[in-house]
Amino acid sequence: MARSPLELTLPSGMVASGYFPAICARHGKPATQRISRKFQTRTPVWVVVLIILSLLIAVLVAMALRKTVTGQLPGCAECDRERSRFRSKVAGGWVATTLVWLVSLVTLNAFLLLVALVATLFALVFSFSEGYGVRGFLTQDQLWVQLKGLSPAFVNAVQAGPPQASPVPVPTDAGPAFPVPGLSMPGPGRTILPGG
User: With the C-alpha atoms ordered 7, 8, 9, 10, is the resulting torsion angle positive or negative?
Assistant: First the structure.
């Protein structure tokens, strides 16, 4: 029957000098070698809190500097299924992150606290990412929106020119209908996407 591990508090000078009996510290068998080990002080909890606060400040500054254009893209039932799957992944990520935090706070293990911090950062980035559907960004001059993850049929239809009548109902509060007066469109045969 294996005995439960015991704890022992020793003077740091004794550990540094290696003045121990020739018995394996881990298994109790006759020692055959000396193993170098490093023992550090525990990382204070306030350091972890400071790291989290600095990351939150960086996120807030990044969000404050962002420019946004809001629009509507045509979608389908598969888009709804993708959105539901993404939300399930986000929820699962936050549940896992919460469990890591609980274990790390109960044990006060510095490594687990670091893992919890990284998991929180990953969960935050993933939650606010465009992890499904069409992705894109607004250029710095705010004149173009670069879209990615488009279907070839949609790209071909857009490059062919604006439709005469929109087959997708547009809400009344969606803003002006396309094309917008004063916005010059590229000539036929050119893409309206940057770099095209």
Answer: negative
Read off the pTM: 0.42
CB neighbourhood size of 59 (10 A): 14
Residues 6+ apart with CB under 8 A from 106: none
Is residue 123 classed as helix, strand or coil in its secondary structure?
helix
Under a CB-based contact definition with an 8 Å cutoff, are residues 147 and 193 in contact?
yes
Cα atoms found within 13 Å of the Cα of residue 163, Cβ hemisphere only: 9
Provide the 3-class DSSP secondary structure of residue 156: helix
Quick: pLDDT tens for 47-90: 877 887 888 888 788 878 888 777 777 878 788 788 888 888 88
DSSP-derived letter for residue 138 is E
Cβ pair 93, 126 in contact under 8 A: yes
Asked whether 132 and 90 are in contact (CB, 8 A), the reply is: no
> Quick check: bond before 167 cis, omega within 30?
no
